[in-house]
Design brief:
With about 260 residues, the chain is α+β, with helices and mostly antiparallel strands. It has seven helices and seven strands; from the N terminus they run H-H-E-E-H-H-H-H-E-E-E-E-E-H. It has a four-stranded antiparallel beta sheet, with no helix packed on it. The mean pLDDT is about 90.
């Protein structure tokens, strides 16, 4: 359903949460489109050179163009609206207890550890009836089904103070043709995710002959977030839309 359709027929307490989810999808579609345009510009090229110091052949990344920070702006808008959809849910749940006033710091709790969930500040769920806390305790990142809520929360907090960084990473499949045939040895791929800085090494090998390298598959992705943290790609954001829609749907009966 489009945002306009919701605005024309708002009658359920969760309509504002669904509107936030719809808005997230609109931002996500724009993020996907502009990310694809960047990828299609062929901004990264694998090259092979020789390191005389280590006496190794290296497959490196040549960076022709960096991801535009606008991608981070669009991703941040997507992430914030996804997070807000959950907060709107809690805001409405907090109105269901007639004996407890809704707090001014009400929010959807997101914790990577069930013990931290149990020890959360009381104001997170002030006014939310106790019978709904078990459901909220299940829909947390320590449940593999909702694992992406963790990076969602971290990136939303980051987006409040700085742009979410777009970062490129890669997988590489290549065929090596040594001359003579047995002249190649000590082939090593990257032992971790390779982030695209100019000259980053994707693979290395040694040879005492001549080697032709044929790159068979060079694919890369754009994800959002610092290198040291688990980030989100647009596919992860798509999955989050589905998971958050599930969470909202599981609470609809609370208002009927």
């Amino acid at each position: 359903m489009t945002a306009a359709a919701y605005l024309g027929a708002m009658s359920h307490p969760l309509d504002s949460a669904y509107l936030k989810l719809v808005r997230a999808v609109e931002h996500l579609e724009q993020t996907e489109a502009e990310t694809q345009r960047f990828v299609e510009s062929n901004p990264y090229v694998p090259i092979v050179d020789y390191d005389f110091e280590s006496m190794e052949h290296l497959v490196r990344i040549r960076v022709i163009g960096e991801p535009p920070m606008r991608l981070g702006l669009l991703a941040g808008d997507t992430i914030h609206n996804l997070r807000s959809a959950l907060d709107h849910l809690i805001y409405q749940l907090a109105a269901l207890d007639p004996d407890t006033a809704r707090g001014d710091k009400t929010q959807y709790p997101i914790f990577d550890d069930p013990e931290k969930f149990d020890a959360m500040p009381t104001y997170y769920l002030e006014g939310v009836p106790d019978r709904y806390r078990a459901m909220l305790r299940t829909a947390q990142p320590y449940n593999p089904r909702y694992a992406l809520l963790g990076p969602l929360a971290r990136l939303d907090n980051r987006d409040k103070y700085r742009l979410v960084e777009p970062i490129a990473g890669s997988t590489l499949m290549a065929t090596l043709y040594p001359d003579p045939p047995d002249s190649i040895y000590d082939i090593r791929g990257a032992d971790r995710v390779v982030y695209f800085e100019d000259g980053a090494v994707l693979a290395r090998f040694r040879s005492y002959g001549h080697v032709t390298v044929e790159v068979r598959d060079f694919t890369y992705y754009i994800r959002f977030g610092p290198q040291a943290q688990v980030g989100l790609g647009t596919d992860g954001m798509r999955l989050l839309v589905d998971r958050i829609a599930e969470i909202l749907a599981s609470f609809r009966a609370a208002f009927d």
